[in-house]
Amino acid sequence: MLVMKKLEEKISKLKQEFETALESAHSTEQLEQVRIAFLGRSGQITELVGTIKELSAEDKRIAGPLLNELKKESQENFDQILQLCELREAQAAENKKQWFDVTMSKPIHVRGTKHIYSQVIEQLEDIFISMGYDIADGPEVEKDYYNFKALNIPDDHPARDMHDTFWLDIPGMLLRTHTSTIQVHAMESRTLPLALFATGRCYRNEALDASHEFNFTQAECLFIDKDISIANLLATAKTFLQTLFEKKDLNIRVRPGYFPFVEPGLEIDMECPFCLHGCSTCKKTRWIELLGAGLVHPNVLRSSKIDPDYYSGFAFGMGIERLAMIRHGITDIRHFHASKLNFLNQF
Ligand code: FA5
User: Fold this and answer.
1) Which of 43, 64, 98 is the C-terminal boundary of a domain?
2) pLDDT at position 335, please?
3) How many domains does the chain have?
4) Is the CB of 316 within 6 Å of ligand 1?
5) Is 106 helix (H, G, I), strand (E, B) or coil?
6) Residue of 160, 322, 326 with the most ligand 1 atoms within 8 Å of its CB, for mutation
7) Which of ligand 1's atoms lies nearest the C-alpha of 320?
8) Which residues partner with 267 through β-bridges?
9) Are residues 120 and 93 in the same domain?
10) Are residues 188 and 295 in the same domain?
11) For residues 331 and 211, what is the distance between their CA atoms, to the nearest angstrom?
12) pLDDT digit string, tens, across residues 201-222
């Protein structure tokens, strides 16, 4: 009995010592020392387990399972801790390999930019918003009524030939040929007075060349209130162009123009902002054609149930691509839709 009690005390003490030794080992090398000291051929645990030979048959029966358990448990504990330690060391070795080269250049991140369309449109919208205008919108697939009839272009009007229209298979439906359609939608749905600016895609079945696309973008300005005159139109157009081209003394000039939905109809040219004596942009003329404009025709007001005896207004429109071409010296309108990065990245 005394032998067994002493053995149990030894087992418990050895377990304690083994655990302490494991805890203080911080590398596989140190763990190997612990293994040799406790589990090696002449290790303390191995030797204690070997003392079973010296016990009586009766004590062997009790001591056997205790010593076996000590050996098994100690080995399992050791293996587990060794595995963790090996993993830690492998990770540390891997991290060490990941040195960095201070002379290495940073990878170039190619950043996208807004399409030139979006840039110009945002700039135009900002100018008109700053003048107190609302931004309006309208559909690209239109009824004949909005594109022509309500704009004083009845079925048999020769002006229809000016717009090479893409007609749809649905009778009376087309792809809008200009953004003046938005004038009609706005007059129908909004209350007076109106101060609107709109941009949008337009479609014309035209032969393509450096200045003609079948799908292009227009901008439209509409102002309707009481007592609106040509003076308001010219002041607005001039302020707009002076702000856009950042030139306070930029002059405009006016020529007669024909658009069935305005009376009188005008073409507004601006003085070339890029030169003093003529350049390639103004084709040496010092003037650049930019806006189709006029006072809203009384028939257009009437179509949208606005009484021309009380209200009048002005409207003007322009091509966004042509404007961008003038501003950035772009020589071919087809670049806009070509999706070529070397063109787009310039803006
Ligand atoms: C119109 O479309 C009128 N709605 C403009 C207007 C609005 C006049 C309000 C009066 C009052 P026009 O057909 O001229 O007008 O076109 C206006 C601009 O759109 C042109 O000056 C041009 O810059 C652009 N444009 C017309 N057709 C094309 C095309 N095929 N490709 C590229 N741009 C075009």
Assistant:
1) 98
2) 93
3) 2
4) yes
5) coil
6) 322
7) 23
8) 255, 292
9) no
10) yes
11) 8
12) 999 999 999 989 999 999 999 9
